[in-house]
Amino acid sequence: MIANSQRGVALLTILLLVVSITVVAGAMLASQKIAIRRSGLLFDQNQLLQDINAGQQLAVTMIRADNKLNDTDSVQDIWAQPIPPYNLGTHSISIELRDEASRFNINNLYQKGAVDTTALAVFQRLLTQLNLDSEIAIAVLDYQDTDGEVHEDGGNESVVYTQQSNAISANTLPNQPFISIDQLQEIRGVDADVLAALRPYITATPYFVPINVNTASPVLLAALIEGGTGEQMQELVAIREKQALTAVDDMWQLPILSSLNEEQRKALTPLLAVDSQAFMALITATDSADSDQTRQRFATVLIRKTATETESNGNSNGDNNNPNNNNSNLGDASNSDKTKDVKVVAQRLWAFRPSF
């Protein structure tokens, strides 16, 4: 009887051990499958990131190659043409390039510790062109400038802007440049509809960017002068479609702009250029290895193109503080060797396709 009881206990112990081993083995197998799946996903994500970096280098190379061909940036250039996707096995890379200088840079309003009154006037006229409140320009400026007073009003910013419906949480303005135009929704008078109307015409590049007259829209060009309209700027659009303007001075020959006096032209010239100092690239990396589920990652890349030290010295004539130095001698081949420094300034990854 005792022997049978001992055999029963031993059998039960063995069964418990078998069950325990089975449970542990099952858990280890499940954990291994999860680890393998996680590793596969990480590998796929890393591959997509590598694809994005490759697309970034392709965009930079394209801008550098185009720069060797001419001193201007226009819709006829290489970078402005549709770029077919690059296929790498089951992966593909798509690149879209946009000239940020074709838009008004809201960070131009406040540069080197001073308000650019000419840029402010242009932005106010742009708002008027779009049937928006021109006072938005003052609020955008106050968002950036380092003082605590409303521009030209003298009121305390923290008091005046506290009343805005979309006020910043601390009721104080950041007093720093914009990082994204989406931040405009923190500004008094700017809601989703206003931002949607402004989006095609503005950018928030973190450095001074003159407006490229070869790519700017007629609406933005019309904002250069008081009472201008997009229809009046169609003549300029027609001219640049045939051949890019090689100097800002070419604009003053147009009937609509010929009425500007010397002082007005001198004020506008630093805000204008015939080439671009900033490009935005939208890169889409696609993984089609899994026929049931296509994976995509997106990135926006800000690319800066500026004159090298040699060219800057050749064009500056001793004045390194004039933002229009890079454009002053574009028509003089002896002062420009077409050398530009093209580099990535910032990259932002997106889980979804951003507005572009």
UniProtKB/TrEMBL annotation:
Alphabetical keyword list: Cell inner membrane, Cell membrane, Membrane, Protein transport, Transmembrane, Transmembrane helix, Transport
Thylakoid in keyword set: no
Region (Disordered): 306-339
Residues of the T2SS protein K second SAM-like domain: 211-274
GO cellular component, one term: plasma membrane
A Gene Ontology BP annotation from the UniProt entry: protein secretion
Keyword field contains Cell membrane: yes
Pfam families: T2SSK, T2SSK_1st
Compartment(s): Cell inner membrane
UniProt domain T2SS protein K first SAM-like: residue ranges: 102-206
Comp. bias regions, Low complexity: 312-334
Similarity comment: Belongs to the GSP K family.
Matches recorded under NCBIfam families: T2SS_GspK
Protein name: Type II secretion system protein K
Species annotation: Psychrobacter aquaticus CMS 56
